[in-house]
Design brief:
With 261 residues, the chain is of the alpha+beta class. It has helices spanning 12-19, 33-38, 74-79, 81-86, 88-95, 100-105, 108-114, 121-128, 141-144, 212-220, 245-260, and strands at 5-7, 24-27, 46-49, 59-62, 65-69, 131-134, 138-140, 145-147, 150-151, 159-165, 169-176, 183-192, 195-201, 209-210. The protein starts with a strand and ends with a helix.
Length: 261
């Protein structure tokens, strides 16, 4: 691992300025960036550590939405009584991310900014129709994810929080790769202010996506039975040593039905 400068700003404004340095990288929980650096896949000239910025942490529930600071760990979301009461599926998702180390170090903002195509949080954000707040603007979930490891974030733009509308009903199911614990296929379903939404992670060649055909069936009848016999096209899905595109396509409606319960 090459030498790099290490900075510890105490405000979002200071962090945003530091992030504009050439080849600088923002460091949240470090669960993706640090392994990449050890492998030589990333070699930033400077790390801008966000861990000391208090304004990025915390959870509030108000006016039908749950707002979670970008620096809040997965473990904190999973353990939050407020999240468990308002959106149990979101707490369940957070509780099944990675292992204990990942849950206690990894953060909501870090996961979304990295946008791993098999990560769990993108499915919750897209599946609930959440809004990503940055130090510059608000970004709707449908506009945030742009492809594998690619988001709508600009240079120097930092996720500060995410607001999740409280749904009438929601559920999460994950078929995980047992070694990495990433999703081979993960499905988040919800019915609420943003309508009926079905978001899929781990399966798409271009990252997280909405299964609109399943949404239409559930909008007509919110029940697991409505998905009996439903199919999803394998076109555009991942195919690798863990499972073919056809295998993943078959899993999606099955997991969606289980998520409804």
């Amino acid at each position: 691992m090459q030498a790099f400068a290490y900075q510890t700003p105490t405000s979002v404004a200071d962090a945003a300025r530091a992030a504009l340095q050439e080849d600088a990288k923002l460091l949240a929980g470090g669960q993706s960036l640090l392994p990449s650096m050890r492998l030589g896949l990333a070699a930033p000239s400077a790390l801008v550590d966000l861990a000391g910025i208090a304004e990025l942490k915390g959870i509030t529930v108000d006016a039908g939405k749950v707002t979670i600071g970008a620096g809040t760990t997965h473990a904190a979301v999973a353990a939050s009584p407020e999240v468990r009461k308002a959106i149990p599926a979101l707490a369940d998702l957070a509780n099944r991310i990675g292992d204990r180390q990942v849950r206690n170090r990894g953060t909501l903002g870090g996961s979304l900014a990295n946008d791993d195509p098999a990560a769990c949080y993108p499915a919750a954000v897209l599946g609930l129709g959440a809004t990503v707040q940055t130090n510059q603007r608000s970004i709707a979930a449908d506009d945030f994810f742009k492809g594998i490891y690619t988001t709508a974030l600009k240079e120097g733009e930092i996720i500060t929080s995410v607001s999740f509308p409280v749904p009438e009903a929601a559920g999460w199911q994950k078929f995980k790769q047992p070694a990495s614990r990433f999703s081979l296929v993960g499905v988040f379903v919800s019915k609420g202010p943003a309508g009926v939404r079905v978001a899929v992670t781990g399966a798409g060649a271009n990252g997280v996506f909405r299964a609109t055909a399943l949404e239409a069936k559930l909008a007509a009848d919110w029940s697991a039975a409505s998905l009996a016999g439903a199919t999803v096209s394998a076109s555009g899905l991942n195919s690798d040593l863990h499972g073919s595109a056809e295998y993943r396509a078959a899993l999606i409606p099955v997991l969606a039905a289980r998520a409804i319960g």
